[in-house]
From TrEMBL:
It comes from Nostoc punctiforme (strain ATCC 29133 / PCC 73102). Its cofactor is [2Fe-2S] cluster; [4Fe-4S] cluster. InterPro entries: Aldolase_TIM, BATS_dom, Elp3/MiaA/NifB-like_rSAM, HydE/PylB-like, rSAM, rSAM_sf. Residues 81-313 form the Radical SAM core domain. The keyword Metal-binding applies. This is Radical SAM domain protein. Keywords: 4Fe-4S, Iron, Iron-sulfur, Metal-binding, S-adenosyl-L-methionine. One of its GO terms (biological process) is sulfur compound biosynthetic process. The keyword Phosphoprotein does not apply.
Length: 391
């Protein structure tokens, strides 16, 4: 019976999926206050996907193993079990925003010093990524305006270092379209801009600004030719000034998150379980559901066969040393290796300074091998069209 649910999804042809998705109104997925009236068609298709996704998100035991098996089958069919390693450089922990789940929020004084790398320091670190034969240089930072200048100066030098045989992936937050243009012209290929939650009210409360702004950034990046990554935080919540939960994420919202990622046709898609971080309004909250995170990843693989899906380090915080391996076994194909110099790694408290799992190169290779995934490394990097996920 449960198996039939997955079969229903697998049976939808790509053309049919496109047709159904195109008919679903984004304002209906996000429960936006600007939705005036949802068409009957949108409602029917949205509810079809939502109810299937919600049921599958709850899979456990044998049903869950079957789900993962199918996700691995899809990965094998479309990606030949090739996987990606990305070398990340976290260039500043300064941030002007105050997302309520993030220890790097501007108000958090417990984080300590805020650091900033120069273009030279970025290049210096990129040398180590090249030496490890990793073909994706991932530059990540808190959201501050200055990163446009620093990073656009560093990119051409990194390209030169790799003799152009490199993919430059950025995660620098919201910026005006002009800045995205500057970075693209400097040589960036990909940009991660997670919506974190597709729910209008939860997004507003948790991130402090409008979901529509974030979605407009995704559109800006896609229109400039970037490969775009987005995704969700599983277990996100919003609290009021007294620390009481005001909005708690529901499985329906998680189903909508997947629907939104599909509707936006992103090239990379992630699910991270929420990890409560010190110095944030959510510090006392419980962590996200790791099992549901894995189910979401498996569903993402089945629904978007070619996208790049990372198995994130937060899985190790909740599931122990094998957490990221479980993510690969659920259909992910990407691991991010941390190349930030060790004395800065703790200060880049992406989810928690105390609990953060810092992924090492050997560990990444080891879990990829255990999962039967062959990492794409230099100098045998295939054509860009293979390495960059294709929709
Ligand atoms: S999630 Fe990003 S934008 Fe929000 S506070 Fe953290 S670093 Fe800043």
């Amino acid at each position: 019976m449960k198996q039939n649910l997955i079969e229903t999804l697998l049976d939808i042809s790509e053309q049919e999926k496109e047709r159904l998705l195109a008919a679903i109104q984004i304002d209906a997925i996000t429960e936006s206050p600007y939705l005036e009236k949802e068409s009957t068609e949108s409602q029917e298709y949205r509810q079809f996907f939502q109810s299937l996704f919600q049921e599958i998100l709850h899979f456990e035991d044998n049903e869950q193993q079957l789900l993962f098996e199918i996700a691995r089958y899809v990965r094998h069919k479309y990606l030949e079990n090739k996987g990606n390693l990305r070398g990340v450089i976290e260039i500043t922990n300064a941030c002007e925003r105050s997302c309520n789940y993030c220890p790097m929020r501007i108000e958090n004084e417990e984080l300590g010093d805020r650091y900033n790398f120069s273009s030279e320091k970025i290049l210096e670190t990129a040398i180590e990524i090249k030496e490890a034969k990793i073909p994706i240089v991932f530059i990540q930072a808190g959201e501050i305006k200055a990163t446009t200048k620093t990073v656009s100066r560093a990119i051409p030098k990194i390209r030169q270092l790799f003799e152009n045989n490199v993919i430059i992936l950025l995660n620098l937050g919201d910026k005006p379209k002009e800045d995205y243009t500057i970075l693209k012209e400097a040589g960036a290929n990909q940009y991660i801009i997670k919506f974190e939650t597709s729910n209008w009210n939860l997004h507003k409360q948790a991130r402090g600004y409008l979901l529509s702004d974030r979605l407009n950034r995704i559109d800006d990046l896609l229109s400039l030719g970037y490969e775009v990554g987005s995704g969700t935080i599983v277990g996100l919540k919003a609290v009021n000034a007294n620390g009481k939960i005001e909005i708690e994420q529901t499985p329906k919202m998680l189903a909508n998150d997947l629907l939104l990622a599909m509707r936006k046709k992103v090239h990379m898609c992630s699910a991270s379980p929420f990890v409560p971080g010190k110095g944030t309004p959510l510090a006392q909250m419980s962590a996200g559901n790791a099992s549901m995170t894995l189910n979401w990843m498996a569903l993402a693989r089945i629904m978007m066969p070619k996208v790049m899906i990372p198995s994130v380090s937060a899985l190790n915080v909740l599931l122990g040393q094998d957490g990221q391996l479980k993510g690969l076994q659920a259909g992910a194909n990407t691991i991010t290796v941390n190349f930030t110099p060790p004395n800065y790694q703790d200060q880049y408290a992406i989810y928690s300074k105390q609990k953060r799992y810092k992924v090492k190169y050997e560990y990444a290779l080891d879990i990829m091998e255990k999962a039967g995934i062959e990492p794409i490394l230099l100098p045998n990097m295939p054509s860009r069209s293979f390495l960059l996920s294709q929709n």
